[in-house]
Design brief:
Elements (H helix, E strand, L loop, with lengths): L8 E12 L13 E3 L12 E2 L36 H24 L6 E2 L1 H20 L32 H7 L8 E12 L8 H13 L2 H7 L6 E9 L9 E11 L15 E3 L10 E2 L19 E2 L2 E4 L6 E10 L4 E2 L2 E4 L17 E6 L22 E10 L3 E10 L6
Parallel strand pairs: 1-3, 4-6
Antiparallel strand pairs: 1-2, 1-5, 5-7, 6-7, 8-11, 9-10, 11-15, 12-13, 12-16, 14-15, 16-17
Helix pairs in contact: 1-4
Length: about 425
């Protein structure tokens, strides 16, 4: 994504999941928006095990936001001038959601992970929550909003929680139940991206264009990437909506929200689908990736002293051998083909996992590595030097994998980046 120097992007990404089984439970997660020049991931949430409405989970107290401008005359959804009322605008947003589903599916298929089945019921779940977020963001400026939840915020009860006309439940599982989608044994996940652009030189982008850009940002964040390339998520439904952010000029400020909901198959146990050999993302068929990662929670460079906001890394490579119990990745080589530059990498696996004994713990048959791009000077504008990998360039990746301490596997492929993302 290319923006003018006086533009900025405000974005947040969340992945959350719930497991629909025979036990009761509930939970929440933190999240929010971060001011930066690119989409940055917000915290993930552990799976929640439920099979019916949970009446034992304590009700959370409304969050008290930081002082913000008062909300006056929130928009009536029935007369909302920004709600698409003509078929062209509605069709454009519908196409954007379908394009995101298709994009994720094709990226998975190209890497032998298996595609998504487009699910209209999940798309409706996504669309209702996207409308909830749109109504919230255009009618209020609330600090520390968790985009995954539909919480009530003190002093903003007329636009948040049940006061929002698109309210469907505080948590993902509540919204799934509200849509009568809950099926025993399924894992349901949700990814959310919010972006605000101020005075972009290219003008207002189409929902489809921004939707794909935001989808790429999810794939460049290793802990979110892990869920997106899990072949056991088989169904997907996405929604992309546009709006004017609260207190801004509709001619120069543009808001976008992407909600993508996915699920496993009802008739198969989760993790029952195990592709053979080494699976990676990116892979040999991957083109147009983001060049840099500017932040994620959990932080993939925890305890290294690196600040991704100022010193990004290049697009990570995810590695998994589904049919192995353990793997050890070695002899990694990451080369800029045109410039003949070997780029150092940081490997994260079960042996050096900074999140061991947490929800984010790396399984022993999975790893990822990140190119350390400090010396590349890959930015094409502004004073920043490091923007991750070079844009529109090919990168050759090779490495060895010792599977279950007995079988040596080798992998080599070349992928290419898209435009520099700032």
């Amino acid at each position: 994504m290319k923006l003018s120097v006086n533009s900025s992007t405000l974005a947040g990404i969340i992945f959350s999941s719930v497991l629909l089984t025979a036990c009761g439970g509930g939970g929440g997660s933190d999240g929010g928006d971060s001011k930066s020049g690119t989409d940055t991931p917000a915290p993930q949430k552990p799976p929640v095990v439920v099979d019916k409405p949970d009446t034992t989970t304590p009700v959370e107290e409304p969050t008290t936001p930081e002082p913000t401008p008062p909300v006056t005359n929130p928009t009536d959804p029935e007369t909302d001038p920004e709600t698409p009322t003509d078929s062209d605008a509605a069709e454009e947003e519908l196409r954007a959601g379908l394009a995101v589903d298709n994009f994720f599916s094709m990226e998975r298929i190209s890497c032998n992970i298996g595609g998504y089945e487009q699910d209209q019921e999940l798309a409706q779940v996504s669309n209702k929550h996207a409308n909830y977020l749109k109504y919230l963001y255009k009618n209020a400026n609330i600090a520390n909003v968790n985009p995954h939840r539909e919480d009530t915020y003190a002093d903003f009860t007329d636009v948040s929680g049940p006061g929002n006309p698109f309210f469907a439940g505080a948590e993902l599982i509540d919204r799934v139940r509200d849509a009568d989608y809950a099926k025993n044994g399924q894992l349901v996940g949700e990814n959310i991206v919010k972006r605000t652009e101020y005075n972009p030189s290219k003008g207002k982008a189409s929902p489809e264009e921004v939707g794909i850009e935001m989808a790429r940002s999810l794939l460049s964040a290793p802990y979110h990437l892990r869920s997106l390339v899990n072949p056991n998520f088989k169904n997907s439904g996405s929604s992309v909506l546009t709006y004017t952010p609260f207190g801004t000029n509709k001619d120069s400020s543009f808001g976008y929200v992407l909600v993508s909901t996915s699920s496993s198959n009802e008739d198969k146990a989760f993790d029952s689908i195990k592709p053979s050999g080494i699976t990676t993302y990116p892979c040999a068929a991957t083109t147009g990736t983001n060049t840099g990662l500017y932040g994620e929670s959990p932080n993939p460079v925890k305890d290294t002293g690196r600040n991704l906001a100022t010193d990004p890394v290049g697009h990570p490579v995810h590695v998994k051998v589904w049919q192995a119990d353990t793997i050890k990745v070695s002899n990694i080589k990451f080369t800029d083909v045109a410039r003949n530059i070997d780029i150092p990498v940081q490997l994260v696996d079960s042996s050096n996992d900074p999140y061991k004994n947490t929800y984010y713990e790396m399984p022993e048959n999975e790893a990822f590595f990140m190119p350390l791009t400090d010396s590349l000077q890959s930015c094409e504008r502004g004073t920043r030097k490091n923007c991750g990998l070079y844009g529109n360039s090919k990168y050759k990746v090779s490495f060895d994998v010792l599977s279950d301490n007995k079988t040596l596997l080798k992998k080599e492929f070349t992928f290419s980046t898209g435009d520099v993302n700032y």
